[in-house]
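seq as requested:
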Amino acid sequence: MRETQTHAAVREGYTQVAKNRTSCCGPSDHGGEIDTASQIGYSDADLSGPAATGNLGLGCGNPTAIANLKPGEVVVDLGSGAGFDALLAAEKLGRDGRFIGVDMTPEMLAQARTNAVNAGYARTVEFREGLIEALPVASESADVLISNCVINLSPDKSTVFREAFRVLKPGGRLAISDILLTKPLPPEVAQSVSALIACVAGAETEDVYLGHIRDAGFVDIEVQRRPATEIFDLASDDPIISAAIAEFGVERAREVAGTVFSYTIQATKP
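struct tokens:
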């Protein structure tokens, strides 16, 4: 797949996140990153162990907690960022397991690789540059595919899920966290770059999003959701949220925030 203007905007936004440790949503200070991660499903051990260096406050859930990872499995992560979920997964996969993170932002990849080396997982964890719509991963090579608040950023989600289906082995598992909507966004918000980087403008409604998963061939789809209020704190001093409020106003931002939910989704490749 060729890179689009959306890809370029996302890469630029997340380059700044990597350089400045500014989250795409939620608090941007380190204490805020820990608080948000705790609220969305990470344990105290997750947040104090060797994987914690990869926590940039970017997630909307904890896919490693729902993936039921087993020693020796191969895991692929769509949009692996600075490697937080990678290092958590590596602990569960053990010496014979393998983790492949895919990300399109060089600055994120550099941080993730450094974090993996420092945490002692350089042998079992690797990070590849690429688009999640064209995964640099062999077909039917993975046991589990995870993703954390990334697929909403893609301009072609149907292709993302077809690629996920392709790389999974028969019986392979999908375990993702993402942002979905209860109703379509107002046009001006859906077309906003600041809202895109804040994980909102690219989000789809539940029926459309789950339709992509079904159409790709997945079965046994399980869904849980909760309001994303702990992530999209309109009182936060996060510069990306502040930019969105400045663009649309507090009332419009509050209206949109009420339609935004954090989902965990599991499915299986037959």
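Confidence is low (pLDDT under 50) at residues 23-35.
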